[in-house]
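Purpose: get a first structural picture of the assembly so the mutagenesis plan has something to point at.
Setup: two entries, given in the order below. No constraints added.
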Amino acid sequence: MPADDIAIVGWGQTPSVASTDLTEPQLCLAAVNDALAMANIDRHAIGFTCSGSCDYLSGGPFVFISNLEAAGAWPPISESHVEMDGAWALYEAWVRIQHGDIDFALVYGSGKSSPSDPALLFPQQLDPYYLEPLGLDPASLMGMQARALLDSGTATERDFAAVAARSRRAGAANPKAQTLPNGAGESDLDIDALLAAPYVRAPLRAHDLAPAADGAAAVVLATPAKARELTDHPVFIRGIDHRLEPHQPGVRDLADSPSTRLAAQKAGLGANGGGVGVAELYATSSAQELILRAALGLGPDVSVNPSGGALCSDPVMATGLVRIIEAAQRVADGTTRRAVAHAVNGQVLQHNLVCVLEGER
Amino acid sequence: MTTEKGSASAADEPMVVDDFVALTYHDRLPPETVRFADGLIAGRIIGQRCPQCRRVYVGGKGFCAMCVVVMGPESEIDVADVGVVTGYTIITPVRYYGQTKTEPFVYASVLLDGASSVLGGQEITGIAIDAVREGLRVRAVWKPPEARNYEGHSTRGWGSLAGGIVGFEWTGEPDVPREQYKEFAV
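Result (structure tokens, whole complex):
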């Protein structure tokens, strides 16, 4: 049975900041209330709620339960949670709404990375025998991946810097993105100046790596019929799929992303980027953006990460959902008729989600 | 790793690797908690009143979880330091690391006058523990001003009184009829 074209009718996101003193439930509440206001529906019309977050980031036990207060869990609601980026919560809600017995679903993703040190925390995600004891942090893994890409002969360090410069220039115009040092400064946009910066993990420099942030994002999904009642310009999910690679990075070709390619195929993206005008990609390194572009077959005419992407703001556990929001925004405002959003979980592009969005104008 | 005499070759020995994991978190107290904590140091118990349903939360979270609306500084009011026991249990201490109690003690839920949420885990003094009961009128026992501090506040919960109040004591007044607090009885 072909899936119904579920629509995105509302969204909200908090500004991403390096550190906030607001609690995660407060961040969720701001994003959820903005999404409901945009959809122009009462929260009691929501038939299913799904959230994505990770308590390890802030170290608070059962924060995901506290976060539920942002959804208004009284009278009792039907809900679920994934220990994954909010994009996967959207996937679950998309499946749930296909059942045909509810009109609306609410999705949110949230994270506070500021209380912990990602370099110490994320090795715990790796296998506990061979990799975790090494303290192999995400930046080191991304450095190895970038090296693999350079060694494949398809990219140079100058290409990495060009991605970073373009992302920072775009991010400087995004009020939700972090204000990065020299983000809008002309000298920083000069690629030679970027290349003069020291390595953090060779061959990657600070601007090549996504800065972890605190933030939350929320989306309201609707059946096609309800979407047409609410808006003249609904944004439809034409396809969504996610695919997983082995946990052990050593058995993968880190310079390629076959799971992204397969997810795109299953989501119906089509060959050579499938005619999208905009792509929002959750790349946590500049090298990853190049790998994802190749896997999706995006040509030079596609606007990639017009929001600035994760290289400007990485509100971990919400960043993937933010990519879907940013892509939907470009479809809704007529920038493009068709867009693709990508989200990732795990280390160095282990688990990838591809979402194809389309408008009707 | 230990090797016993007469064992098989070293290759057959199990190798044991200790891998101790410690994760450190640095929290920033949310603004509501900072104001609540400063209030206790100043001898005030601050509640947040929902602009929609008018419920008053002591140890406000910055939003009403029932109405899902934001409650900021403009929602804050002083709540009385007297109230009623809405529920309790008597705890018989068992020995474990960090346990300093040796005698049975009371953990009670206290509804302060003017509040719509109870404060859990409050110690009740000034009355024999087997006389503690629902409906008991109690008042806060404040620490001397110089001893008040930020104790007990974290991002892991809301409404700790430990920075300013050591517990509650019986006022000696007649019990409160259950009708007046049954909505909050736990």
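The radius of gyration of chain A is 19 Å.
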